[in-house]
UniProtKB/TrEMBL annotation:
GO BP term, pick one: tricarboxylic acid cycle
InterPro entries for the chain: PEP_COase (IPR021135), PEP_COase_bac/pln-type (IPR022805), PEP_COase_Lys_AS (IPR018129), PEPCASE_His_AS (IPR033129), Pyrv/PenolPyrv_kinase-like_dom (IPR015813)
GO molecular function, one term: phosphoenolpyruvate carboxylase activity
Name of the protein in its database record: Phosphoenolpyruvate carboxylase
CC annotations in GO: cytosol
Cofactor (UniProt): Mg(2+)
Keyword ATP-binding (UniProt): no
Source domain of life: Bacteria
Reactions catalysed, as given in the entry: oxaloacetate + phosphate = phosphoenolpyruvate + hydrogencarbonate
Role noted for this protein: Forms oxaloacetate, a four-carbon dicarboxylic acid source for the tricarboxylic acid cycle.
HAMAP family (UniProt xref): PEPcase_type1 (MF_00595)
Species whose genome carries this gene: Iodobacter fluviatilis
Length: 919
């Protein structure tokens, strides 16, 4: 499987890695599937290459003919081979990005864009002082939040093998190897690829929430526990050098999680699952601290015959119960042993470890993480006192920061539920308590009775009432939340998010329910131990966000609740559902307008705003480069406060590799810093002109999108038959159902399978549809002058630039010729041609518009890395699409054998890998 000859000199190492992996994969296929199969696969690859390059006008037809005649075993072998090359390409490219960053640093070429150093340089160049940066970080919260939203197709077993490949490639890159070492390394790669080939890629079972918890926890074990402390310490050192004094930063960046707390549409998240999630996370944190202490014991071997220790350190050493005689002259080892024993005792007490060791028999557990930090501080202070600050500033300092950041719970866990369920619970509680018929009340009356309950110490629930199954389940989750906070502290469960929030009563309902379990308290004054957060998702919800928050802030009780939470109110904005509701351009613009309105509302109410961006992996769900996305936010909407969801396969792409993970965390910090100190705003008349133009374009794009998706008869039929939407649920990629309700409505379909399906058929429709019409209609009115204005906005306005750049990426990954083949799957071909003709025309209008505005003659002209990546993988990706069409034809015509179903699932897996951000 040779690699395309399109790589610049600086990328020759990538070419080398790709060729090595392709060679080893081809050899594995020859050995495992046979020479004849391998040769047939290579022939198809060459046809695909001709098709991609356009060198043979008949290549597409020949490719389709070749693929349609494959026998089942060859089909599976081809799908697996091309799919694996996409996965291996991802690994090699991630390694190459690390390589280029290292080369940049070694060459002393200055900080790269997106790095913290570059952000600090940018800000100081604008006249921002180091003290202002430090003060901003002191009040900041930057949080990527892992969700369990299911677009990660790969099993954990496969991901572990991918990490092994990455490590072996990195060894070849980092070290000068002897011929024998190179041979051993190559043999190790061959073994991993052989194991991969003989391992089933697709799960044979449906994931449980517990499985998802384990999958999410792996990123903490592999990346966050190691890299986040280092990132903090490096930033402290950079700022200390800048202001010539020691710096101690608060924990302004945290990694959160929804996994085990998000029950919106997921009936499998229960109170017991919530308890398990926190317990499991706690076990991982405490185990990491325990292991680090074991390493510290080996490192801190200082003898009292050589150094003097202070009395606090000696007292800590004297409390050790393990090997006191053997280590009597080594007080640091004894002190760390005492700490380690107490960590283990804490884990046993909390219930995260379920076995005992001899050295913890008499150890007392820690009451909280601060008590552990106090002991570690004793060790650090004693080391510094006798000239061993270097030792204190190594592993010990990193451990101190890890404990400070991750505590005894690892990651703050968010809870989420949709507003309709809260309404149902409140209604049933009112009914059994002999109160009003809640469902019959209007909004004003609902607010009145809910505020009454918030002011009353009388409980709504009773142990002597039998509630419905749904309500009992909800009440158990609230009780579990209260238990978890009591055991681990309020920081473990800080947020409660309300999906489909479209009224003030939706917020008050949750406050009342939290009061039932003590998370909202009346005495000595109204206070809350949890942030109650509205999620505005649809276009109407985004337009109502400012009004709802204004009315909420006018309620004295709510102002009191925020007063006990540092006057911070978080608001979550939904990218996925707003896109499905109104299309790409309108979604982006309505989100932008909502942020502008919220900035004004919060300033008027004198509260601090934190925005939580519910972004998915693909552009159709808010995805795209995080640095550009944050810088494109309206002025005043960041101010050091931002949370962003990380979903599906994007979590793997960003955080499976430690170095890549560190880079992505840096990008979030750097972009947040820059956005918090924005450049001077343009003149007001320019701002108004921009907004008026965007409003005009948005309305036009919205109409075009709604006309296709919601007003075209039988569009849902086209979507279900021209994409693999019906085959995706059986992939076992998540515990959550694909739709909120069992209907045939696009409105009830979740945004993830909606976008994922369009990606699979290479249309990417949610990432661009409507834009071409909007620009075409505008230019008919405004001509060259209008085009010049659009080009200026592309150059000068980060929001517009980011919007166009993301669309450029989506269009480059789309393929209208391949999409046409999927339209052949629609049984009613008159319907198929009628709809696909419209889609194709809009696709061309959009491509023309993007190229005219960007003044680029081709897509991805300003993103050569992605262009190179696509060039390398399209000869392997495109055949998967053609095969998927053939397999779907067989499956839907009644050939539902296990081989065919398995092959369909493998094509979905491979296409997702080739596209990377597919859902």
């Amino acid at each position: 499987m040779p690699v395309l000859e399109t790589i610049a000199d600086k990328d020759l190492p990538l070419k080398r890695d790709l060729e090595l992996l392709a060679e080893l994969l081809a050899a594995t296929i020859r050995e495992q599937a046979g020479i004849a199969t391998a040769e047939q696969i290579e022939s198809i690859r060459e046809l695909a290459l001709s098709y991609v390059q356009g060198s043979n006008p008949e290549a597409g037809k020949m490719l389709a003919k070749s693929l349609s005649g494959l026998d089942p075993s060859t089909t599976v072998a081809l799908v697996r081979g091309f799919g694996y090359f996409s996965h291996l390409s991802n690994i090699a490219e991630d390694l190459h990005h690390n390589r280029r960053r290292r080369a940049h640093k070694i060459a002393g070429s200055g900080p790269q864009r997106g790095s913290i150093a570059a952000a600090i340089n940018t800000l100081t160049g604008r006249g921002v002082k180091a003290a202002e940066i430090i003060a901003m970080l002191g009040e900041s919260l930057i949080a990527p939040v892992l969700t369990a939203h299911p677009t990660e197709v790969k099993r954990k077993t496969i991901l572990d093998s991918h990490r092994a490949v990455a490590q072996l490639l990195a060894e070849r890159d980092r070290y000068a190897m002897t011929p024998e070492e190179l041979s051993d390394n190559k043999a190790a790669l061959e073994r991993v690829l052989l194991a991969l080939w003989q391992t089933r890629e697709i799960r044979t079972f449906k994931l449980t929430v517990q499985d998802e918890i384990e999958n999410g926890a792996a990123y903490f074990r592999n990346t966050f526990l190691h890299e986040l402390p280092r990132l903090y310490l490096d930033l402290e050192d950079k700022l200390a050098a800048l202001c010539e004094q020691s710096i101690s930063l608060p924990n302004f960046i945290q990694v959160g999680s929804w996994i085990g707390g998000d029950r919106d549409g997921n009936p499998f998240v229960t109170g017991d699952v919530l308890r398990y999630a926190v317990s499991r996370q706690s076990g991982i944190a405490l185990d990491y601290y325990y292991q680090q202490c074991m390493k510290l014991e080996n490192e801190l071997s200082m003898s009292t015959r050589i150094v003097d220790v202070d009395s606090a350190l000696q007292a800590l050493a004297n409390s050790a119960t393990d090997e006191k005689d053997r280590k009597s002259e080594e007080p640091y080892r004894l002190a760390v042993s005492a700490v380690r024993a107490r960590i283990f005792a804490t884990a046993v007490k909390i219930g995260t470890f379920h076995h005992q060791l001899h050295d913890v028999a008499n150890a007392a557990e820690y009451a909280n993480a601060q008590a552990l930090l106090d002991d570690l501080a004793v060790i650090a202070a004693s080391l510094k006192a006798h000239g061993a600050a270097l030792l204190a500033n190594g592993r010990l300092r990193r451990l101190q920061r890890a404990v400070s950041v991750f505590g005894f719970y690892l990651a703050p866990l968010d809870m989420r539920q949709y507003s309709g369920m809260h309404e149902k619970v409140i209604s049933e509680l009112f009914t059994h308590a002999g109160l009003e018929e809640y469902m019959r009340l209007d909004e004003a009356s609902r607010r009145a009775v809910l505020l009454r309950e918030l002011s009353s110490a009388r409980p709504l629930t009773s142990a002597y009432v039998e509630y419905s199954e749904d309500v009992q389940k909800e009440l158990d989750i609230y009780r579990a939340a209260s238990e978890v906070q009591a055991r681990y502290g309020a920081s473990v469960l800080p947020n409660y998010i309300i999906s489909n929030c479209d009224s003030v009563s939706d917020m008050l309902e949750v406050a009342v329910l939290m009061k039932e379990v003590g998370l909202v308290q009346l005495a000595p004054k109204l206070s809350s131990k949890i942030n109650i957060i509205p999620l505005f998702e649809t276009i109407p919800d985004l337009r109502s966000a400012g009004k709802i928050m204004t009315e909420l802030f006018a309620i004295p009780q709510w102002r009191n609740l925020l007063g006990c939470r540092d006057n911070v109110q978080e608001v979550m904005l939904g990218y996925s559902d707003s896109n499905k509701d109104g299309g790409y351009l309108t979604s982006n613009w309505e989100l932008y307008k909502a942020e502008l309105t919220l900035v004004e509302v919060f300033q008027a109410a004198n509260f601090k705003m934190r925005l939580f961006h519910g972004r998915g992996g693909t552009v159709g769900r808010g995805g795209g480069p995080a640095h550009d996305a944050i810088l494109a936010q309206p002025a005043g909407s960041v101010n050091g406060q931002i949370r962003i969801t990380e979903q599906g396969e994007v979590i793997t792409a960003k955080y499976a590799d430690r170095e890549v993970g560190r880079r992505n965390l840096e990008i979030l910090i750097a972009a947040t810093l820059e956005a918090s100190f924005p450049e001077a705003s343009p003149p007001l008349n320019d701002v108004m002109e921009r907004r008026q133009l965007m409003e005009k374009l948005s309305l036009s794009a919205y109409q075009a999108y709604r006309d296709l998706v919601y007003a075209t008869p039988d569009f849902i039929t086209y979507f279900r038959e021209a994409t693999p939407i019906n085959e995706i649920p059986s992939l076992n990629i998540g515990s959550r159902p694909a739709a909120r309700k069992s209907t045939n409505s696009i409105g009830d379909l979740r945004a993830i399978p909606w976008v994922f399906s369009w990606s699979q058929c290479r249309l990417m429709l949610p990432g661009w549809y409507g834009f071409g019409t909007a620009i075409s209609e505008y230019l008919k009115e405004s001509g060259d002058e209008g085009l010049a204005l659009l080009q200026q906005l592309y150059r000068d306005w980060p929001f517009f630039n980011s919007t166009i750049s993301n669309m450029d990426m989506v269009l480059a990954k789309s393929d209208i010729a391949i999409a046409a083949r999927y339209s052949e799957l629609v049984q009613d071909q008159e319907l198929a041609q009628r709809i696909f003709t419209r889609i194709k025309a809009e696709w061309q209008r959009t491509v023309d518009a993007v190229q005219a505005i960007s003044k680029h003659g081709e897509l991805l002209a300003d993103n050569p890395m992605l262009a190179r990546s696509l060039d390398n993988r399209l000869p392997y990706l495109d055949p998967l699409n053609h095969l998927q069409v053939e397999l779907l034809k067989r499956l839907r015509s009644g050939e539902a054998s296990e081989d065919v179903q398995h092959a369909v699932h493998l094509t979905i897996n491979g296409i997702a890998a080739g596209l990377r951000n597919s859902g």
